[in-house]
Input
Amino acid sequence: MAKKTTKLVFTPTIVQVEHKPYPKTIDKRFHQLRFNMEDNKLNSVFIQYLPNVRYLTNYSGSAGALLVTEDEIHFFTDDRYEEQVKTELFDLHNLTVHITRDIWQYIIDQGLIKKIEVLGVEAENLSYEEAIHIRQKVHTTNAKFKPISCLVERYTQPKSPEEIESIKKSCNISERVFEHILTFIKPGITELDIAIEIDYQSRLFGSEGPAFDTIVTSGARGALVHGQPSAKKIKKGDIVLMDFGGRVNGFCSDISRTICVGKATKEQKDMYTLLYTAMNKACEEARPSMRGHLLDKVARDMVANAGFGDNFKHSLGHGLGLVCHEKPIITFRMEDQVIPEDVVLALEPGIYLPDICGMRVEDDVLVAKGKNIKLTNAPDTLISV
Output
């Protein structure tokens, strides 16, 4: 007798979202997105890059997408998140929430495909395989498929007051972690010990997790700009470089701190002061509508004039938000990056001397109308422990 098998069938459903207020900035983002659609002659856009989905809807799950038309918003996720979306999603105007395991087949089966005439997709965030799959589905109705660069990102660089508050809380956690770690570092412990303690204390202070893999290097390993923590033991005289951040409501902090174990030399102190001064000057000089490469020049010229130009090769900084490294990129390599009002930047000049040491000083700053606000404050002199 043949063995019976049970086939699980997931029936596509539509769920209701809890009615509650949400940041006014979100409606503005959809308004700007629809202007972008009009400029690019699109009547719909498909968004599946999860940070962009979250910026527009507050959804924090691992599977979700949006189909935005001229007057409707369709959100898709699977049954794992059916309960989560009821309370987490913003109650957006003309929002419909669909639960399905096959988004594009669902779009076809439910007739939503008929609403698509020219579909815009995220050019930077779509794999070749995904692009081919979506294009094939769209072409079944003779609709057009059009990849668009920075479809959403240009509207999520400026942060809402609520988002800024989350970044501030994350920054506060990272600063508290640094204060603790100063009492933890001593000769004999390893770089890994320090990194683990940073991540542990960050969780204790309220972080949802690290914003990125925590960086800890010491001594000659400091010349590894993004060196991973190793089993190398800290010894007296080492320069220790730490780069870490946390998350609150998904929003990141990102700071770099450099200290000396034991008594620092005059050269070490001077190098640190140079980096701190360059970073602080850049924080002061940042302005809305300023080109990123010009802000990079503010700090880079100071480092170069001190004779370390060849030892500072990475960009000065980047935007900060749900993704740790967002646009605008503050770099001499790109002249098209523009700093918007209400963006949070992480600015991080560094000097890396092969076989000797590396130093980096990084703070987070809110670029606001009238006056910038530093969200973190690195020590103005090199700390010795």
Notes: The radius of gyration is 24 Å. The chain is about 35% helix and 20% strand. The chain has a mean pLDDT of 95.
